[in-house]
């Protein structure tokens, strides 16, 4: 989640002065969540730049495999882009202790 934790790809998302960002999630239904990323980047001797991104987060295996489907961002409405499949991001985590807990949970 380096670089402010943004799930959308932005042109020149780096800075040489400071970055301020927040990443918010809200549960929608079971393993489906909405996300909102907000950020401000400031380079030396340049004006601040602002970024945002919204979309859906699918927790297919909570804490291990998550899929991010962007909907809208500072780049515009993402779903209209013919290269949309290139914008989908995923995270795979390798926490062996949590993985053991996943298989030792009680399934109801």
Low-confidence stretches: none
Mean pLDDT level: 81
Written as H for each helix and E for each strand, in order along the chain, the element string is: EEEEEEH
Report the end-to-end length measured between terminal Cα atoms: 32 Å
SS field, number of helical segments: 1
Largest sheet: 6 strands, antiparallel
Secondary structure category = mainly beta
Tell me roughly what share of residues is in helical segments.
Answer: under 10%
Number of strands: 6
Count of individual domains: 1
Query: Over all CA atoms, what is the radius of gyration?
Result: 16 Å
Beta-strand content estimate: over 45%
What sort of overall outline do the alpha carbons produce when their principal axes are compared?
Answer: globular
How is this structure best described in words?
- By secondary structure, this protein is mainly β.
- It has one helix and six strands.
- The protein has one helix at residues 96-104, and strands at 18-29, 32-42, 49-61, 65-73, 76-77, 89-92.
- It is globular, with a radius of gyration of 16 Å.
């Amino acid at each position: 989640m380096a670089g402010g934790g943004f799930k959308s790809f932005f042109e020149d998302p780096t800075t040489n002065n400071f970055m301020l960002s927040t990443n918010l999630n809200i549960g929608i239904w079971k393993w489906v969540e909405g996300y909102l990323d907000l950020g401000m980047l400031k380079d030396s001797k340049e004006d601040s730049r602002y970024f945002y991104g919204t979309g859906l987060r699918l927790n297919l295996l909570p804490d291990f495999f998550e899929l991010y489907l962007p909907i809208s961002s500072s780049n515009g409405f993402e779903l209209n882009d013919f290269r949309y499949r290139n914008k989908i991001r995923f995270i795979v985590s390798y926490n062996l202790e949590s993985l053991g807990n996943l298989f030792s949970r009680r399934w109801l």
